Amino acid sequence: MNLNKHMDYFNPLTDLKGTVHIIGCGAIGSTVAEMLTRMGIPDIRLYDFDMVTPHNIANQMFTNNQIHTAKTKSLKDLLLSINPEVQIKTHDEGYTNEGLSGYIFLCVDNIDLRRKIAEDNKFNPYIKAMFDFRMRLTDAQHYGADWANKESIKAFIASMQFSHEEAVEATPVSACGTTLNIITTVRLIVSAGLSNFINFVKGKPIKKLILVDSENFFIESY
Predict the structure, then answer these.
(1) Average pLDDT of the chain to the nearest whole number
(2) Statement: residue 175 has pLDDT above 90
(3) Closest C-alpha among 195, 205, 186, 218 to residue 57
(4) Is beta strand 127-135 parallel, antiparallel or unpaired with respect to 102-106?
(5) Minimal CA–CA distance to 152: which of 196, 122, 124, 114?
(6) Which are the contacts of 47, defined by CB distance < 8 A and separation ≥ 6?
(7) pLDDT of residue 168
(8) Which of 119, 73, 85, 89 is CA-nearest to residue 21?
(9) What is the rounded CA–CA span in Å between residue 121 and residue 130?
(10) pTM, whole model, 2 decimals?
(11) Strand residue runs (E) in 13-137
(12) Can you give the pLDDT at residue 196?
């Protein structure tokens, strides 16, 4: 894949020090995977047990002819169409306690599972960093943790001290109960999170929190 557009700024073949794991291939996860592939990331692991449904097309990286197919397979096909050289391994039952290393993107829509993954791996020396995303309709949050820094890990896990049920209650839904979010918010928070990832890979301190709001043109980092 020709990476001349950004090779002088970010070279994944020399800057990256591990595999990328994307846990959850919905709105956030599929967008993370697509953007990382265009950046030339050579080795990606995808985790999801779900199928593509009609309402996924509005804010995820799938197409109409992929409805009723596995998200991991559909996403793998898309990524290989972008870069035939990318190495992709799919976990079609979702995350089931596989060994993790390198860079972990938590994109599954269940805070309990994300917290469990972080807690179970807090002493894992093979992980470089974890990145988490949370989104409502027009506002979203991104959290990052340098896994070599105990205080960074502690703050990352502390940000997850609420239940899946509480998260659902705080999420806007339509009159028929459909979770509301829009593609502009997805792209905005993923762009912020992947910029955090790039900076970290290049040796800069990780941002612990990035806040965005696509309606009010707001972005702030800490």
Answers:
(1) 95
(2) no
(3) 186
(4) parallel
(5) 122
(6) 21, 22, 23, 24, 25, 72, 90, 91, 94, 95, 98, 108
(7) 73
(8) 89
(9) 10
(10) 0.95
(11) 20-23, 43-47, 87-91, 102-106, 127-135
(12) 98
Dihedral (CA of 37, 43, 47, 50) sign: positive
Instruction: For residue 126, give the amino acid letter.
Output: Y
**What's residue 8's pLDDT?**
95
For residue 58, give the amino acid letter: A
SS3 140: strand
Domain formed by 17-221, architecture: 3-Layer(aba) Sandwich (3.40)
Instruction: Pick the closest to residue 34 from 67, 74, 79, 2 (CA basis).
Output: 79
pLDDT digits (tens, 9 = 90+) for 97-107: 999 999 999 99
pLDDT digits (tens, 9 = 90+) for 21-50: 999 999 999 999 999 999 999 999 999 999
